[in-house]
């Protein structure tokens, strides 16, 4: 194992060993650059359904890698570390779901940022890109929705349906939930012409002062439709790195507290080691994998066209 790993060494090794490299938009720029495909959760799931590669190296967090594995049960899916997880996904327990199901006679729509066991108990699946479309198309005026309470609130606002968040107050992403309007307004004072783009995982009061609400992939498209020169990117800081590379003539400002340390656990060195040793490998119970596959297929059928998160 070399001490210093250059991005080119990674590309070379991946090619030699037949790996497709998939990465989420929050990965460090060096990893985004060596990936064959970079996207949001929905794009990554779609890409995972289409690939012919026998081996996949996934750069993101565990629930995303599990989705890729569920869609590719016969393939080897490798990650740099198994401990890159999503605390929000782990916040919804089977007991909470059972309690909610007992109390309300309503279908359960699970956000893809959830564990495989949680998904096993769900009726519908959504990502941040299509949550509004999914809930709109669910044949019920009331839905249980979890684990993100902020996404639940956004979906309720857009669909007019009764969206019951589970586990409620404790279901949030620690990276997005604690951003404040004061942090955004401070940047707006300095850059009054800037447009504010937010991820739907931010709290309602921050969402209300945004020009645009959308998933990371939808944020990627937004500057094309806007004449603004400066954007305040209210999501994990890795997204702004991607936007800067895509739009070199625009300015993208970040909220510096918004770092997902789990996404940042992957680096050039542990990625190289994973390729070298073909592991650690993502292992998924077959029954759970089957359920996730069905949820993804149903989700894509339910949403003929992806919701564009415009306010
Ligand atoms: P996207 O699917 O919008 O990329 O979001 C994933 C995520 O983890 C947001 O925190
Ligand atoms: Fe989970 Fe938040 Fe990190 Fe996204 S940013 S992976 S929701 S902890």
From TrEMBL:
GO biological process, one term: 'de novo' NAD+ biosynthetic process from L-aspartate
Protein name: Quinolinate synthase
Family annotation (InterPro entries): NadA (IPR003473), NadA_sf (IPR036094)
Listed NCBIfam families: nadA (TIGR00550), PRK09375.1-2 (NF006878)
Species: Fervidobacterium thailandense
Gene3D superfamilies reported for this sequence: NadA-like
Single annotated GO MF: metal ion binding
GO CC field: cytosol
EC number, as in UniProt: 2.5.1.72
CC cofactor: [4Fe-4S] cluster
Recorded metabolic or biological pathway in which this protein acts: Cofactor biosynthesis; NAD(+) biosynthesis; quinolinate from iminoaspartate: step 1/1
Record keywords: 4Fe-4S, Iron, Iron-sulfur, Metal-binding, Pyridine nucleotide biosynthesis, Transferase
């Amino acid at each position: 194992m070399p001490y210093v790993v250059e991005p080119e060494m990674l590309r070379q090794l991946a090619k030699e060993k037949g790996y497709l490299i998939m990465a989420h938009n929050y990965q460090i720029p060096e990893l985004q650059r060596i990936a064959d495909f970079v996207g949001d959760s929905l794009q990554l799931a779609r890409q995972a359904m289409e690939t012919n590669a026998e081996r996949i190296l996934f750069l993101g967090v565990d629930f995303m890698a599990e989705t890729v594995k569920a869609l590719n049960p016969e393939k080897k899916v490798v990650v740099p570390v198994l401990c890159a997880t999503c605390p929000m996904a782990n916040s919804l327990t089977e007991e909470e779901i059972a309690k909610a199901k007992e109390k309300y006679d309503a279908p359960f729509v699970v956000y893809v940022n959830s564990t495989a066991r949680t998904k096993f108990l769900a009726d519908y699946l959504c990502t941040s890109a299509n949550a509004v479309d999914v809930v709109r198309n669910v044949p019920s005026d009331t839905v249980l929705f979890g684990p993100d309470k902020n996404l639940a609130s956004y979906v309720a606002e857009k669909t007019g349906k009764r969206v019951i968040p589970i586990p409620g107050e404790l279901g949030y992403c620690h990276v997005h939930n604690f951003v404040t309007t004061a942090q955004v307004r401070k940047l707006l004072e300095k850059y009054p012409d800037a447009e504010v783009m937010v991820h739907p995982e931010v709290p309602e009061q921050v969402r209300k002062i945004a020009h645009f609400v959308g998933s990371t992939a939808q944020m990627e498209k937004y500057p094309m439709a806007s004449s603004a020169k400066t954007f305040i990117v209210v999501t994990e800081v890795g997204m702004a790195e991607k936007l800067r590379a895509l739009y070199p003539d625009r300015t993208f400002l970040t909220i510096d507290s918004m770092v997902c340390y789990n996404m940042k656990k992957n680096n050039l060195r542990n990625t190289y080691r994973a390729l070298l040793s073909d592991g650690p490998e993502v292992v998924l119970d077959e029954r759970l994998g089957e359920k996730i596959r069905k949820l993804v297929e149903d989700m894509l059928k339910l949403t003929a066209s992806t919701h564009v998160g415009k306010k």
